[in-house]
Input
Amino acid sequence: MRKASVALIGLFVMMSSMAARLLSSSSHPWSSKADQAVITKILDDQRTAWNRGDIDSFLQAYWHSPELTFSGTGGIARGWDSVLVRYKKTYPDQAAMGQLDFSQLEFRFLGSDAALVLGRWHLAREQGDIGGVFSLVWERFPKGWRIIHDHTSAVGQPK
Output
């Protein structure tokens, strides 16, 4: 009985220690102003590439891998090549692409090498403006931050 009590106390101490570490890490997130600035710069570069009609450069922010995923109204595209095809089919020319803007960016760092970025997108086009929301999962690679998953939805603009 005494061995069982000692084991339970040991387990309690270990679990308490783990809980304390988790609580302290959530109160001191991994976020870094420098990482946020880098990701913001990549998004600015994407916007610039889009607005000059350059989908290939726009996609440089994405992980060039068959494991990249994009979720949208057309379903799930898997792999960088499929995402490229999807973008070029949906936006065949500069008129369809319009002028892109991002707003209401929110950053949540999930660790030192992962981040979630939420925001709104808007395309100003002669054929009619469209916009919506996105969630981007970013991972830090040796070559820098890259989008590993993009979920973009068209929704009405806030009033």
Q: What stands out?
A: The two ends are 66 Å apart (CA to CA). Strands lie at 69-72, 75-78, 99-111, 114-124, 130-141, 144-154. Residues 2-27 form the longest helix (26 residues). Confidence is low (pLDDT under 50) at residues 4-28.
